[in-house]
User: What shape does this take?
Amino acid sequence: MINKVILVGHLGKDPEVKYLDKDRAVANFSLATNERYNDRNGNKVETTEWHNLEMWDGLAKVAEKYLKKGSLIYVEGKLKTDEYEKDGIKRYSTRIRVNTLNMLDKASGNSSNNTPSAETAAPVKKVEEHNEAAIESIVQEGDDDLPF
Assistant: This one.
């Protein structure tokens, strides 16, 4: 089975990074993707979709250091859905667990030419292969502070 998501968009806010201990970090933020098309009458229409993203460990630290509201990024990851109950009603929350990040913004000091800097030209390496079982156990333990 395949569970893969690929998105290119802009951050809606600065990443919120939490450190679970000195080596374990998780970053959460929203990403906006836009779609432009012409409707039946030839009118241009633009729609925006908002996606909730999470990054763990090395990628979370990269997000904390380099990403900010408005940053243009390319991400690959997989859909993760949490199930919870509120007021006796079963609810679901879906997010994208990112495992690949490429920063697409041009470096700020690079406006004099069109050559990307080394930092933006090479994609950010996949920092590590995440141990999904370990991440799931941490996520399950941390669900008590959900804001809903």
